[in-house]
Amino acid sequence: MSSKSFHDFKSISVLGASGKMGRGIVLLLVQHLFSVNFKNNVKFNLIAIDLNEEDLKNMLSYIEAQTLKYAERNYPQIIELYDKENPKRSKEEWNKKYSADILANITTSISFESAITSELIFEAVVEKLEVKVDLIRRIEENTSLKPYYFTNTSSIPIQSIEEEAQVKGRIIGLHFYNPPPVQKLLEIIKTENSSKEVESIAEGIAASLKKTIVYAPDFTGFIGNGQFIREVSYAIGLVERLVLINGLPNAIYLVNEVTKRLLLRPMGIFEVVDYVGINVCQFIMDLMDRDFKDEKFNNSILKRLLKQNILGGQDSYGSIKNGVFKYECGEIVGVYNRHAYDAFDPLNFDDLTLLTWKELKSKKDLEAVLSSHFVDLSKSKGLAAKVAVKYGKACNKIGENLISKKLAFSENDVNTVMMLGFHHLYGPINSYFADF
Q: Does the reported pTM lie above 0.90?
C-alpha cells in the first residue's frame, strides 16, 4: 500500500458499529470526513458493520439525532460549509439537510465480509480475542488490499491480535474512551512490528479528530485500565477490611463516597465499576491476573455480583444500570448485599469542609485549593479522612509501579490518561500525600 494520509482513504469500515463505542467512532469519522470531502465534491463511503439489522437502524437513528444536535449548536459553521447555497432554506431545513447528507455517506451491512473493499478498518467488537481474530482473518481471506486495522480494545495486547490474525505490522491500538465523540483522550498502542505508515495514519486520525494522544506500552490493560483495575482490586480489599467495623453495605458505600467526595472525583470507584460494567471489569481483571504473575487481584465483590446476574453497565441513554449500587434518578439509594439491595448509613465527614468535583473542575487556582484540601484531610481524625489518605497513597503507588514496571512511559502519561480519560482533577502520581 502506498504512503497515504488519513483523508486519502475513501472506503473505511467500522466493525461492531452498533455498540456504544462503535457508533461513537462512526459518528466521529463520518462527520469529520464529510466536512473535509464535501467542498471538494469527493465521494467517500463509511461501511458500518454489525450482526443485527435492527441494531444498525438504531445506530443510524443515533447518528441522525447527534448530527441534528450538532447542527443546531453550530449553525454558522453549517451555513459556511454549504457556502450559503439556497439562502431561502430555514434553519431547520439546513439542519436536516446536513444530517441527511451525513447519513448518505454511511452504508450498513450485517456481513463482515463487506469490509473487504476498505483499506482502513476500525474494529470495536466484543472484547474477546477469538472474536477479533476470527473477523480479521475472514476479511484477510477475502481481500487483496492489505488493509490497516485500528482496534479499540481496552485491554487485550495488540501483539496477540496481530500474531493470531497474521497481520504483522498492519494493526495498531486506538483506544477511544467512552463516549468517543466527547472524550478527548486517545491511547495509541503500537506493537514492535507496527509500520511507520500505520503509526502515521493513527496520528493523523487523532489530529483530525482533535484527540490528545498518549502512547501506551503493549501490555494488558494499557495505562487507563492498568491504573483503574488495580484501584478496583485495592478498593475491594479495603472494603473487606472495613466490613468488620461497618458491615458490607456501609463499607462499600464509605469507600465509594471517600473516592468521590474526599478525593474529589466525578464518580466513586464502585460507581465507575457500574458505569463500565461489572462483567467488563471482571473480564479485564481476569486478563491482568493471567498476564501479571507477580500480582494478586481481588475480585470477590465482582464475582459475587455476577453470580447473581448483576451486571451494571449503561442503558441506551447512557444512564448507569443497577450494579454494586441501586440508582434512582442517578442517585445511589441502596447497596447490593448478598441477595438484595440494602440501605446504608449516612456518612459523617467530621470537621471537613466538603468541596465537589463539579465546583473545582474550572477553578484557576486548583493546585492551591487541592493542596489545602489534602492538608486538611491529613489533619482530620475521622475514619473517612483516614481511608481517603490511605487510598490516595495506594493510587500513587499503583501509578509509580506502572512506571517502574515499564507499563507506562512516563508519569505525565499516567496522569494525563486518568485526568482526561477518567476526568480526575489531578493524576495519581502526585505529592499531595507524600508527607502524610
A: yes
